[in-house]
């Protein structure tokens, strides 16, 4: 096998030799010119041979079979297994584009865009176009840089490259040392909503799909070792819907429990009530909200104190995930209802301070207890979202906002230095947001949309996975609210029943 492969490689190298190496009389006498000519038109030669063989063997029937069988086989394949069919078709098309569209023009474009480098002999070198792949957004050219070049050289020439390739935009992304990807953007993948009629269950919390990137591919997040997430955006920008679509996948996992506090006080989250370990849509009764927050806080303390002794590890994420030790997602929608004390009377203010203090503790210490706090707000300023909370939230999502200050309040100072900002997001593009990717760079994504009826159907389907937090060691919620002695409740947390 190996010798055969080597032999073929030698033949291929010989055939690909530049013409000037074997020319003139030598070429004429050895018949080399003919071999080269046949090689050059190898596809045509092969096709002609197949047609001739079919005709000579089966006559006209052979030709008809040749015209009918391949398309029929392709259609059947596509019907039976569309993924593998699509994969092969994409590869063939990408290869065709590489050879006949991009490679043919590559050197000229590199020179025109000033991305070539002079070589000692007076010649010049160009970056190598290694391969082409097809993405929903357009073609992606994978390029190996010349020594001394960096992706920044391409970023500077992005406009020139877009004009040279005849596309509205070219995006440049480093893809490894010495490599860069040019994404020839032919359409804005984020322009159209992505509506899901069902959501696959999340099986791996280290790879949770949450939105679609500008290349049309899903983005995932690693929720292990994360304590908190903050999301902000103007009313109607898609915060609740984004959170809903993610929750629909997570609640199908038995090792996930949800706690939802809806500060809007409406029905946005009522779909999850049958599956949520705790659900509260109170925007005025802050005692009820405090009771739930205290309960989660108690669970956190219980886990932090007993986890090592009982399960052998101090960090929740080093232990196997199972339904008896679930990750707890705490969603607080419109969190400013509870944290922004302007206009509150004194008693309510005290409750608000207690809620904020507990949320702040969850954000700071919840990571190693497997508690992930997710705060959504229309008002991402420091009076609505205390900096102690915001700065400890490692995942941030900014849907449409109006001012640079609001964008910075959610995403941090990085947004001032980036071309990508949530201030640009058009009003009609609800569900589009700016997030930081794994490399820390900002990017635009679109959250999928799951309407509340679909969400409710999913929640009902998996309602038997719901557990009370008290089953895992959280203190019970007291009904006779005595004015919220929060110190007492959390202090007793570690002793309550497991
Ligand atoms: N990803 C999306 N794709 C398509 N449409 C969306 C998407 N997200 C939201 N929408 C549309 O926008 C509407 C408002 O979204 P949503 O309720 O999530 O906004 P919000 O930011 O939570 O607003 P508020 O702050 O008022 O609660 C939805 O009812 C839906 O019609
Ligand atoms: Mg909302």
TrEMBL record:
It comes from the Bacteria. Keywords: ATP-binding, Membrane, Nucleotide-binding, Transmembrane, Transmembrane helix. The chain crosses the membrane at residues 45-69. ATP binds at residues 233-240. The keyword ATP-binding applies. One of its GO terms (molecular function) is DNA binding. Residues 213-408 form the FtsK domain. Residues 483-498 have a biased composition (Low complexity). Residues 472-498 are annotated as: Disordered. The keyword NADP does not apply. This is FtsK domain-containing protein. It comes from Jiangella alkaliphila.
């Amino acid at each position: 096998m190996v010798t055969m492969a080597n032999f073929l490689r030698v033949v291929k190298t010989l055939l690909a030799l530049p013409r000037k190496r074997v020319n003139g009389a030598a070429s004429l006498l050895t018949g080399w010119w003919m071999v080269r000519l046949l090689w050059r038109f190898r596809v045509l030669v092969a096709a002609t041979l197949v047609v001739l063989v079919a005709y000579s063997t089966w006559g006209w029937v052979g030709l008809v079979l040749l015209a009918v069988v391949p398309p029929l086989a392709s259609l059947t394949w596509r019907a039976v297994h569309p993924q593998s069919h699509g994969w092969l078709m994409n590869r063939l098309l990408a290869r065709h584009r590489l050879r006949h569209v991009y490679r043919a023009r590559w050197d000229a474009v590199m020179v025109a865009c000033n991305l070539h480098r002079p070589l000692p002999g007076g010649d010049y070198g160009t970056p190598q176009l290694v391969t082409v792949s097809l993405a929903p957004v357009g073609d992606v050219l994978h390029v190996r840089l010349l020594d001394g070049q960096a992706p920044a050289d391409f970023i500077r020439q992005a406009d020139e490259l877009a004009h040279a390739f005849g596309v509205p935009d070219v995006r440049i992304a480093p893809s490894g040392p010495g490599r860069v990807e040019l994404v020839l953007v032919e359409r804005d993948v984020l322009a159209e909503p992505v509506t899901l009629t069902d959501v696959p269950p999340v099986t791996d919390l280290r790879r949770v799909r949450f939105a679609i990137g500008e290349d049309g591919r899903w983005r995932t997040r690693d929720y292990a070792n994360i304590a908190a997430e903050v999301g902000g955006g103007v009313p109607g920008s898609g915060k609740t819907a984004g959170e809903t679509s993610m929750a629909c996948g997570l609640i199908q996992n038995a090792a996930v429990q949800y706690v939802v506090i809806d500060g809007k006080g409406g029905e946005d989250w009522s779909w999850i009530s049958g599956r949520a370990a705790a659900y509260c849509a109170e925007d005025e009764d802050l005692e009820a909200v405090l009771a739930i927050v205290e309960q989660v806080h108690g669970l956190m303390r219980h886990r932090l104190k007993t986890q090592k002794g009982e399960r052998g590890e101090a960090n929740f994420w080093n232990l196997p995930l199972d339904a008896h030790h679930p990750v707890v997602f705490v969603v607080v929608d419109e969190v400013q209802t509870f944290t922004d004390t302007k206009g509150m009377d004194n008693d309510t203010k005290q409750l608000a301070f207690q809620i904020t203090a507990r949320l702040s503790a969850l954000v700071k210490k919840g990571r190693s207890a497997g508690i992930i706090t997710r705060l959504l707000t229309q008002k991402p300023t420091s009076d609505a979202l205390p900096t102690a909370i915001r700065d400890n939230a490692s995942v941030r999502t900014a849907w449409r906002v109006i001012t640079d200050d609001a964008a910075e309040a959610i995403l941090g100072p990085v947004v001032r230095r980036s071309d990508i900002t949530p201030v640009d997001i058009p009003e009609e593009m609800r569900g589009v947001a700016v997030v930081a990717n794994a490399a820390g760079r900002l990017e635009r994504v679109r959250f999928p949309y799951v309407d509340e009826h679909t969400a409710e159907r999913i929640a009902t389907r998996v309602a038997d996975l719901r557990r009370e937090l008290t089953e895992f060691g959280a203190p019970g919620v007291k009904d006779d609210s005595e004015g919220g002695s929060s110190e007492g409740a959390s202090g007793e947390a570690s002793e309550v029943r497991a």
